[in-house]
Write a structure and sequence with these properties.
Largest sheet: 8 strands, antiparallel
Strand order of the largest sheet: 2-3-4-8-9-12-15-16
Shape: globular
Number of helices: 7
Radius of gyration: 19 Å
Strand content: 25-35%
Structural class: alpha+beta
Distance between the termini: 12 Å
Amino acid sequence: MARAIHPAASPPRRGPALDRIEDYFAGRFEAMASPCTVLVDGDDRDEAAALVEIAAREALRIERKFSRYRTDNLIHEINHANGRPVEVDEETAQLISYAATCWEMSAGLFDITSGVLRRVWKFDGGSRVPGQKAVEACLERVGWGRVTWQDRTLSMPAGMEIDLGGIGKEYAVDRVAGLLAAQTARSFLVNFGGDLFAGGLRRGHRTWGVGIDDPGRTGQAALYRLDVARAGLATSGDSRRYVQWRGQRLGHILNPKTGWPVAGAPRSVTVVARTCLEAGTISTLAYLQGPEARIFLEQQGVQFWIL
């Protein structure tokens, strides 16, 4: 998990909150089940407030459109089509096509139909693990290879679902970063639940300092600090969502072929790339490689840190 390093400030509340911290503004709000922070390197409070409002509106728009938990969006329609083909808009089509490419690149390990497994797995830090029969019952409804996706039209067997949560937050970060860059020349940092994008050097040619949480002391200590100027950053790991089983800590990222957490995976993988979506995709694909994560990362030509 990544977080911008700054002194403690007032806790988040409903709607965007804005605080002055040292020589920049920090705006905070909740979206996509995550704490969201937008840092603006400047002295104009009104400008910072307007930028944070833009960020909040876009984050909430994306949440409303792509959340699997809502009953009034296209994802719900797709997941309850009972085999009927559903035509989607261009933005949704781009995300689904991106996910399909990830499925191909990962030999089926990245699979947006695997979300049904959340019905039997509860990564709450406890020790409850589902029975194998329950996992196998879910696996009968998993497999992007069973989906027909062509000409912006998707159809899949009744009972199957798609879940864009694996790329949605990173996509939202990049969308917000693009909107902010079009509105201001100020340096900014967008951080949605640890997935972030830094928009350029701060005044005085300074970078943004980003702390990567120590998985063993979540929220209490930064394992290391990264200095980021203009790049996306994402971390995949087990620091927040996991279960304890037979002396092992099992992270929330599941192997869609077995229905179980990835065996032999690192505690965390952090990647810096051109965009947050690229960083998040590479870190997730690396995590899915289990004990081969480092080998995979070394082949990608990106900065990475692995624990």
